[in-house]
């Protein structure tokens, strides 16, 4: 009886400090959505913690009481369905209080197993809970920093110090429940408990590493390690022999390169960035939305993560690290262009985890080797990494063709050492307004890119006076590198690759991986009001619509995304059509013409050019529906089989240009779903004979169908122009000459038809189209000259039916002029 009174008194005193402690810690709970825990509320719960910390248990209790979950400090027998359970708290720990995680098995776990054997109808859910204070991984050679970081072995005095130092930087991770019943076998209960304890210890270790990352390498030791590596030693010897310099000079050069490249991570800088970025995002953006992070967290357990985001803005560097920090994931070491290594930004970025890369490695073997060895050292050490797979920022809003240099280094490093499994994580950024938007338009119009400088930095501070809307950070479906390589080269682990692995299959595998990453970036695209409204307005003749029609079109797009959808990883927007339109109207250059018969929404000439950027962010999601709509633009009926055949002929070009992820089997399924959706929306009519046809041209539904189709009109017009030029002048011409002629002709056409879409004559798009024409067998290049197949005529005739008569006339006029230089070259 006396023990019960003392026990109650202890709990009362403990709970007295629960609320102040919870306020002090300001814990972030992962996962954020309670339903993601997958708890069965009809079964009893026991929590499993790493060590017996009263403070951590109190934080857990505060969370449980706030969410109607069983208290960890209450007895298990207080929960329903636990008659006869031995007296014990609903939380047991794998270590002793004040002594860290000492090896052993909680006796309570063994008792619960015995109770379950006596009650075969019952089950207990074991829920692992990790509580981490601060984000300091510690330095391998720093005793003080190891003491002040939240390490596994920690007494009460040191824990109190850590709590004081890391106020309001506490993370609580609640794992998915494990059925204790499912773990029972014919083995002895103590042996089963040992295995379970080991599984939970591994889980807690992986959780800690995924949040904090490995201990930071001491910089002098890192530099020395890279310089002394076999690969760099060979490069030094090459310098000595070929450049006739001394060993001291060559070694000093290697050391200088490592110092230029290497990050110098300091936790105090990360904390400084934390405070600064919270202030900055509140000034710049009305919100930062994060998508698919729970999916990433679940799939990435036990993996080293390499983030490969799209590159929209200089803000991307900071934004991803900020999001990862607040989602309880280790912040990555970031490959940054050497142009950002300017005072004072460069030093801060370096201490925040940036390592710097030159624009070109050409002609400098020592630098190339040093950089590769640094990347290998970091990956081998298990450090998260980030680099932009496009190389530079996209000025058009479309994904740029991938640059595979860093990706190849990652794969080569993994071939050398694959003990720590790597997972590639695609990341999509979506801005309602990109800070550099006006600059991008100037550069696309021919202005020279301004180099980064202190002066440019001061000019950028003007952005703080403007609201830039919302920004989305969405994580794509990760790619386990081990699984990918096994698909490309079964048995790849059995080969000896040496220090500079370059197997013959590497280039093809790297290119394939790059394409897969790009498609998964686009698969995680997010929707916002600016992008969706731009998609509709830019599809009209004068970039203007009645408010009523625009709202109806936005509703159509929203229903398509929810009923048919682009991918399982897409992030939809729950805003109403009015809220979506409101995001657009807040942009500069968007006007409202008030009229008694209904207001009109329009874009001025500058805004129309800028809005192509945001439209292009999501164009891939609507490209195939727009293609289907375009098939009916001339009012002729089509069967579903004809629709499939027409779409399949053009799909390879859209897939390559827009990084669409659908396979041929998925395409067929999606095309049929799209056709059914358009019939349901009454944008297509199914006749008695089963043929599909567009509504009458004077109807509202025909107008909406054509607005959908016009989203793809510039792309189809560019395709038609290329095919027309090929038909007129392909024979005897070379690919590069024809690409140049097509690009110049497209530029001329954009002026004639007043097309304000800067990417329309982007050289990269023509290179990609010619590559696809070769891959699909429409073109062959023999002896530097183009030979066209008969299928090219069929493709040309197909496109001629999908381009408007007015656009077709202008294209034929431009092609007539453009084909003359090609004929002269051929002659």
Q: Could you walk me through the main structural features you see in this protein, from its secondary elements to its overall organization?
A:
This protein is an alpha/beta fold. The chain folds into four domains: 13-212, no CATH class; 281-523, Glycerol-3-phosphate (1)-acyltransferase; 529-710, no CATH class; 713-826, Arc Repressor Mutant, subunit A (Orthogonal Bundle), CATH 1.10.10. Helix content is 52%, strand content 11%. It is built from 32 helices and 21 strands. The strands form five sheets. Strands 7, 8, 9, 10, 11, 12, 13 and 14 form an eight-stranded mixed beta sheet that branches. The longest helix is centred in the last third of the chain and has 26 residues, at 605-630. It is found in: Cell membrane. Belongs to the GPAT/DAPAT family. One of its GO terms (biological process) is CDP-diacylglycerol biosynthetic process. A motif (HXXXXD motif) lies at residues 310-315. Residues 305-432 form the Phospholipid/glycerol acyltransferase domain.
CATH architecture classification of the largest domain: 3-Layer(aba) Sandwich
Question: Kindly state the mean pLDDT as a whole number?
Answer: 89
- At the first level of CATH, the class of the largest domain is Alpha Beta
Secondary structure: number of strands: 21
How far do the termini sit from each other? 108 Å
Q: In which range does the helix fraction lie?
A: 40-55%
Strand pairing plus helix content: what structural class?
alpha/beta
Q: Helix count, per DSSP?
A: 32
Main sheet properties:
8 strands, mixed
The CATH topology label of the largest domain is Glycerol-3-phosphate (1)-acyltransferase
Rg of Cα set: 31 Å
SS strand fraction: 5-15%
Q: How many structural domains can be distinguished in the coordinates?
A: 4
Regions with little confidence, pLDDT below 50 for 5+ residues: 97-102, 143-147
Shape: globular
């Amino acid at each position: 009886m006396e023990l019960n009174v003392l026990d109650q008194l202890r709990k009362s005193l403990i709970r007295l400090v629960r609320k102040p402690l919870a306020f002090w810690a300001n814990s972030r709970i992962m996962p954020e959505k309670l339903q993601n825990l997958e708890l069965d509320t009809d079964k009893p719960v026991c929590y499993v913690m790493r060590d017996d910390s009263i403070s951590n248990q109190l934080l857990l209790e505060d969370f449980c009481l706030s969410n109607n979950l069983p208290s960890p400090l209450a007895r298990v027998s207080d929960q329903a369905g636990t008659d006869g359970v031995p007296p014990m708290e609903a939380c047991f720990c794998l270590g002793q209080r004040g002594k860290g995680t000492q090896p052993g098995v909680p006796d309570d776990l063994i008792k619960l197993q015995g109770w379950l054997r006596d009650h075969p109808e019952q089950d207990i859910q074991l829920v692992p809970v990790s509580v981490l204070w601060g984000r300091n991984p510690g330095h391998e050679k720093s005793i003080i920093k190891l003491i002040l970081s939240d390490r596994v072995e920690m007494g009460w005095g040191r824990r109190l110090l850590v709590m004081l130092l890391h106020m309001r930087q506490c993370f609580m991770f609640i794992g998915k429940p494990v059925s204790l019943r499912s773990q029972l076998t014919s083995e002895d209960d103590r042996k089963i408990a040992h295995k379970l304890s080991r599984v939970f210890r591994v889980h807690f270790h992986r959780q800690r590493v995924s949040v904090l990352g490995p201990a930071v390498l001491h910089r002098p030791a890192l530099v020395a390690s890279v310089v002394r590596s076999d690969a760099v030693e060979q490069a030094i010897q090459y310098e000595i022999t070929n450049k006739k310099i001394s060993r001291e000079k060559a070694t000093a050069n290697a050391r200088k390169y490592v110092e230029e490249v290497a990050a110098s991570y300091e936790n105090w800088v990360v904390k400084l960035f934390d405070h600064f970025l919270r202030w900055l995002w509140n000034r710049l953006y009305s919100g930062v939305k994060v998508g698919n992070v729970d999916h990433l967290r679940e799939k990435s357990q036990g993996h080293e993560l390499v983030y490969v985001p799209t590159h929209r803005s200089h803000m991307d560097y900071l934004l991803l690290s900020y999001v990862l920090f607040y989602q309880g994931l280790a912040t990555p070491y970031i490959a940054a262009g050497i142009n950002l290594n300017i005072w004072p930004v460069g030093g801060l970025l370096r201490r925040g985890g940036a390592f710097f890369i030159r624009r070109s490695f050409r002609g400098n073997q020592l630098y190339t080797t040093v950089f590769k060895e640094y990347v290998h050292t970091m990956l081998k050490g298990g450090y998260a990494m980030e680099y932009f797979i496009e190389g530079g920022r996209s000025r058009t809003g479309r994904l740029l063709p991938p640059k595979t240099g860093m990706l190849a280094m990652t794969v080569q490093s993994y071939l050398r050492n694959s003990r720590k499994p790597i997972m590639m994580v695609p990341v999509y950024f979506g801005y309602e307004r990109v800070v550099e938007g006006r600059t991008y338009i100037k550069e696309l119009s021919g202005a020279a890119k301004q180099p980064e400088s202190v002066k440019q930095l001061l000019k950028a501070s003007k952005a703080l006076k403007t609201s830039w809307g919302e920004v989305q950070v969405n994580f794509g479906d990760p790619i386990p590198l081990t699984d990918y390589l096994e698909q490309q080269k079964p048995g790849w682990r059995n080969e000896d690759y040496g220090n500079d692995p370059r197997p013959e299959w590497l280039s093809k595998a790297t290119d394939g991986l790059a394409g897969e990453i790009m498609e998964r970036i686009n698969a995680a695209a997010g929707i916002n009001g600016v992008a969706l409204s731009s998609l509709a307005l830019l599809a009209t003749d004068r970039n203007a619509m009645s408010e009523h029609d625009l709202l109806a079109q936005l509703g159509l797009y929203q229903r398509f995304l929810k009923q048919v959808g682009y991918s399982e990883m897409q992030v939809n927007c729950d805003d109403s059509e009015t809220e979506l339109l409101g995001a657009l109207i807040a942009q500069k250059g968007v006007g409202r013409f008030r009229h008694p018969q209904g207001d009109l929404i329009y874009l001025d000439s500058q805004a129309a050019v800028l809005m192509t950027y945001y439209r292009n962010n999501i164009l891939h999601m609507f490209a195939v529906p727009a293609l289907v709509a375009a098939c009916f633009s001339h009012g002729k009926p089509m069967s579903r089989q004809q629709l499939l055949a027409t779409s399949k002929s053009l799909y390879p070009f859209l897939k390559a240009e827009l990084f669409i992820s659908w396979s041929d089997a998925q395409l067929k399924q999606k095309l049929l779903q799209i056709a059914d959706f358009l019939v349901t929306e009454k944008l297509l009519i199914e006749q008695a004979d089963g043929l599909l046809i567009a509504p009458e041209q004077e109807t509202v539904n025909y107008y909406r169908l054509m607005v959908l189709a016009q989203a793809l009109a510039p792309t189809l017009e560019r395709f038609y122009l290329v095919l027309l030029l090929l038909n007129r002048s392909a024979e005897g011409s070379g690919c590069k000459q024809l690409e140049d002629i097509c690009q110049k002709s497209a530029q001329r056409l954009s002026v004639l038809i007043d097309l304000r879409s800067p990417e329309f004559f982007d050289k990269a798009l023509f290179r990609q189209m010619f590559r696809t024409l070769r891959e699909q067998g429409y073109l062959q290049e023999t002896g530097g000259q183009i030979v066209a197949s008969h299928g090219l005529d069929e493709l040309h005739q197909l496109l001629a039916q999908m381009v408007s008569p007015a656009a077709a006339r202008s294209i034929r006029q431009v092609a007539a002029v453009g084909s003359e230089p090609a004929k002269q070259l051929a002659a």
